[in-house]
Amino acid sequence: MTDFRIIFSKKGSLAFISHLDLTHTFIRAMKRAGIPLKYSEGFNPRPKMAFGLPLSVGMEGENEILDVSLSKDTDCKVLLQMLRESLPGEIEIKSVSEPGQKIKNIKYARYRVTFDGYEGDESVLNAVLENPPPVMKHSKSGERLTDIKPMIFSAKAQNDGGSFHILLTLTAYDSMNLNPEYVIKSIIEAGINLPEEYTITRTNIIFDE
Amino acid sequence: MTPKEQAYKYLKKVSKPARYTGGELNQIIKDKSGIDARFAFCFPDTYEIGMSNLGIKILYDCLNAEENIWCERTYAPWPDMGELLKEKDIPLYAHESGDALYDFDFLGFTLQYEMSYTNVLYVLSLAKIPLLASERTNEHPIVIGGGPCSYNPEPVADFFDAFSIGEGETGLVDAVKCYINYKKTHKDFDRKEFLRELSHVKGCYVPSLYDVKYKENGEISQISPKYPDVPSIVEKCCVKDFDKARFPAKAPVPFTETVHDRIMLECARGCMRGCRFCQAGIIYRPYRAKFPETLNKQAYSLFKSSGYEEISLTSLSISDYPCLMELVDALKEWTDGEKIGISLPSMRIDSFEAKIMEKVQGVRKSGLTFAPEAGTQRLRDVINKNLTEKEILDGCRNAFSTGRTNVKLYFMLGLPTETDEDVAGIANLGQNIVNVYYENPNRPKGKSIEVTISVSCLVPKAHTPFQWFGQNSLDELRRKQMLLKDAITTRKIRYNWHEAKVSRIEAVFARGDRRLSKVLLEAHALGMKFDAWDEYFSYENWMKAFENACIDPSFYAERDISFDEILPWDHIGCGVSKKFLIDEAKRALSGVTTPDCLTKCSACGAAKYGASLCVKRDINPKNIESEG
Ligand code: SF4
């Protein structure tokens, strides 16, 4: 097998590195381990690899996707082992398998927003999430007031005693890609006082069934 | 919770948060219980610049090689992060453990350029450590400095408990060992007593143990140690067997892009050429080279531990490295397959170079650069820059014939004896290069030549033959910059010049004395930091700082100093004799050149370090070995 899908998590200090940095981190790790990367043709050959979805700086990811092509037939288990030995500890390889569904078929992403020590009212928040007020959102044509409701597949606030979570499933393709920060913005827009500090974790990436 | 963990919560708000997290591959984590001395190493500029510094990588490795020493890293936080730390009352921390810097045994600063001095104070204040060494107690870390600027440490002397002068591979480790030993043999730590002991360690300079007296006219009348056991001259540390010097096979690899994001292979240390303005050319004497086999092995282990895609062969003048061709061939045997590029900065131009460039070009084509530094042969002789116009033009002709169309030239204004003709000579040289291009009948159709002329201002540096010469006044430097601008008549030449104001402040500190500490305190009080960055440098603020401290900057920058005057750095031994520097200064004034070390030894004084160049008159490690 020469084409693989790698599922990994990215945590701790790694949450703060950019998408480009993450690309370099993987390339370097594979080069260190002697993994035979396949390169593109042309004057400036680049390794053939593609991430499922870029992850914003500051967010952690639990099940991120990376597809790579190698120039030599390699066993999944061997590749998994090589990656684990070479990558820094805050990137954990969860699995290596055949690619399966194409990256362009990614439809949704799941997020968990955590507010430590926040004592909010779940029902109030859930009501807001039912009908979120529009927010100013960046798009290719500039910043404009956008209704984000169609981009929220599901949303739920829950108080776990001590930490407060908002669980979101948001559309994640083309112009329908919604960053969870906009949902938080929208909640604040509705007049709810959320704490300034929170963490966002992308828990899953979901393909079109 | 460590200060780093405290800061994590807020990191999303600052620019480039990956600068502040640590956690890089190959960072070193140790168990605190087995540690006798904790050392925090600070590069007082951004993470991206600090992580690119080879010296830090070497020292991080040397210190951590000692089982009972743990060396960590820290950098100057960008102002947005600095504000945040202040606002949230989080002390500046070291990246590995996340512990506050004030909890360390040592805080080391590498001083690479004068414009980072305000950042030293900025870092100290964010670390909540008293700025003045005299105000620190037994509880505070020992603040120690090193790097090229520590060859004249006087302007920052009041802020440092000690300096380690010279090559830290030996010097700095000895300083920390002295501390461990002191702690083991004394029940209570007494800062003063320890510093006195530290002053006996090779290369260690403890500024508080010296008295400096001044004459009425502001000149220094005397520099003397306060006690007989304190050395009157602190000699630099120098690695004798450079080939076997400890080298970092593994160094932290940043996640985020840095300035030099590549393997830096230090092929040689020192320079044989003796340009008279160049401080590195003096303080790193004598020239020492490594075996190509050693370098090839080191490059491979660096690659295996980093995964970098480029190897840069470094040295002050890489084309002087005697086994360059052999090394490039050996590297290419494995780098080609791994798709790794080889780059050669600081090349001189001759046919040999062209052949090498062709070899490495396949992977990476670098532009053509020269540093003639002066526009006329007369002035190039004054500065001892051994590069003729013919060599430059031949080099260009060569390069143009291979289809290259970009040439970059570096010059300096304000050199001793410089006339307006010399300044105009820069424009002429540029024009002659353009002419050479159009002489080539096979030049690429439809492509134009671009010659870039970059001009900086001379900053006379301590321990160089030019240390006695004053810098041109700001007005004079500006006049020359404009003169040159008017002398350039073709649009094929692009002309860049450095802001003379920055060079003037650099000149003040490069030749400064202890009284300047006051200026730095005033600058810090004005909130000054990141002065090496255009967006933060403010000449007006500097002038205010000088005024508040009642110090005249021109006394330091512009004054010609006589050969018999006591220099503020006379008690720091750079390995080269003052007599040699005076001779060189005199030869400069009469336009007499001095041959490079290989052609003829000029008995500069560095022979005492026993390098094969000085002793055996040979730099090729191969020949030296076969001699036994
Ligand atoms: S002693 Fe001679 S050969 Fe050695 S560095 Fe000095 S001038 Fe060069």
Describe the protein:
The complex is a heterodimer of chains A (209) and B (628). Chain A is elongated. Chain A has four helices and ten strands. In chain A, strands 1, 2, 3, 4, 5, 8, 9 and 10 form an eight-stranded mixed beta sheet that branches. Chain A folds into two domains: 3-100, Alpha-Beta Plaits, CATH 3.30.70; 104-207, 2-Layer Sandwich (Alpha-Beta Plaits). Chain A has 209 residues and is α+β, with helices and mostly antiparallel strands. Among the domains of chain B are: 3-235, Rossmann fold (3-Layer(aba) Sandwich), CATH 3.40.50; 262-364 and 595-628, Transcription Regulator spoIIAA (2-Layer Sandwich), CATH 3.30.750. Chain B is of the alpha/beta class and 628 residues long. In chain B, the strands form six sheets. Chain B has a six-stranded mixed beta sheet with strand order 2-1-3-4-5-6. In chain B, helix 5 crosses helix 17 (517-525). Chain B has 22 helices and 19 strands. In chain B, helix 10 (324-335) links the parallel strand 13 and strand 14 (341-343). Chain A binds chain B through residues 12-14, 16-18, 20-22, 24-25, 27-32, 39, 45, 57-58, 86, 88-90, 197, and chain B through 9-12, 17-18, 20-25, 253, 255-257, 303-309, 338-339. Bound molecules: iron/sulfur cluster. Iron/sulfur cluster binds at residues 285-286, 597, 601-604, 606-607, 613-614 of chain B.
For the largest beta-sheet of chain B, the strand count, sense and barrel status come to: 6 strands, mixed
Using the coordinates shown, work out and report the CATH topology of the largest domain in chain A.
Alpha-Beta Plaits
Structural category of chain A is: alpha+beta
Spatial arrangement of strands, main beta sheet of chain B: 2-1-3-4-5-6
Roughly how many Å apart are the termini of chain A? Answer: 25 Å
* Backbone CA Rg of chain B: 25 Å
- Please count the beta strands of chain A (DSSP E, at least 2 residues each): 10
Radius of gyration of chain A: 19 Å
The domain tally of chain A reads 2
- Indicate the structural class of chain B: alpha/beta
Give the fraction of residues assigned to helices of chain B: 25-40%
Assembly state: heterodimer
Regions with little confidence, pLDDT below 50 for 5+ residues of chain A: none
**Strand segment tally of chain B:** 19
Greatest interface: A-B, 26 and 25 residues
CATH superfamily of the domain at 3-235 in chain B: Cobalamin-binding domain
Report low-confidence residues of chain B grouped into runs of 5 or more. none
